[in-house]
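Sorry to interrupt, but I need a hand with the structure work. Could you write out one complete protein record for me, on any chain you like? Could you add the entry underneath, on a fresh line?
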Amino acid sequence: MSVNTGSGPDIITFGETMALLMPSGGKGLEYSSELHSLFGGAESNVAIGISRLGGHVGWFGRLGKDPLGRMIFKKIRGEGVDVSRAELTPDAPTGLMMREVLMGKTSVYYYRKNSAASQMSPKHLDEAYIAGAKILHITGITPALSESCREAAFEAIRLARKHGVKVSFDPNLRLKLWSIEEARPVLLELAKLSDIFLPGLDELKLLYQTEDWDVIVSKLRELSAVSIVKGGEDVTYVVTADTITTVPYFKAEQVVDTVGAGDGFCAGFLVGVLKAYEYPEAVRIGNLVGSMIVQTEGDWEGAPTWEQVEAVLNNIKHIER
C-alpha cells in the first residue's frame, strides 16, 4: 500500500468505475441464483495496481450517492488510492455491469447510460491536482461515455501538457460503447497528444485499418509518443522512432480470469517508469503483473505487491510453513 507523503500523487487517473455482479459457480447469469458483488473500471483497476506496487496514485470520478457508489469509494480508498477529488452525487446513479464466463468466453453487460460518471465534464477537473502529478493516465473509455466526458479527457491532457506532466494513454477500445468509425478519429487524436501510447495489437489493426505490421509500425512512428504494443505473439513491443524492442511474456501457471490483465500491465509498467527504469524493463514489470492478475478472479483483486513482484523476478522460493 502506498504511503501518503503529504504531497500530491505521482500518477493521476480518472474515469468511470462501476459495480460488478458475477454469478457464482461458473454458471450463466440467466441461471444463477447467487451473484458476487464486486467493482471494476479500467482506471481504478490501474490505480489500485499502482498502489499495491507502492506507487502514490490518485483516482477521481463521479459516483452515485447510493450504496454501490459508497462501496466503491470506500474500497478504492481502502486500497491506498487518493480519492480526494472523487465525487458522490445524488443527481445520478452509479453504473453497473454484469459479467459471465461460459465455455471460456467472457460476456459483459453494461447498465451505465446516464450514470454519474457519464456526466463528467471539464468543470470537474482540478488543474492544481493534475499539475502536481508526474504522469496523467487516461483511457479511451472515458471519451466514449458522452460528449462532456470526451471534452474532459481532452481538457485533462491540455492541462497536463501545460504543466509538463507526462500523458499515458491506453485506448481501451470498447465497441459496445461506440462504433469503430466514431472511435477512430478520437482515439488517434488522443494518441497524438500523448507521451506514452499503450495500445493492443488488435486495437491498432482496427484503428489503422490494416493487418500489416510494417504499416502499423510506420503509423506509430508518426506519433511523438513511445508506443508500447500489447498482445503480440508471446511478446510486448516497444516502438520508438528508430527501434523496436521485444519483451517476452511471463507464463501464467493457470488462467482464471483474463479481465484486468491489460490494466495490471499498465500499473506495472507505469510504476517501472516512476522508478526511472528504461522502457523495456518497465514493460517487463508490466508483463509480469499482467500474468499474475489473470490467475485470480476479478478485475483487480489479484494485483500483486512490489514484494511479490520482486520475489518472482529474483526467483525467491515461497515457504509454505
In short: Confidence is low (pLDDT under 50) at residues 1-6. The two ends are 25 Å apart (CA to CA). The CA atoms of residues 272 and 281 lie 7 Å apart.
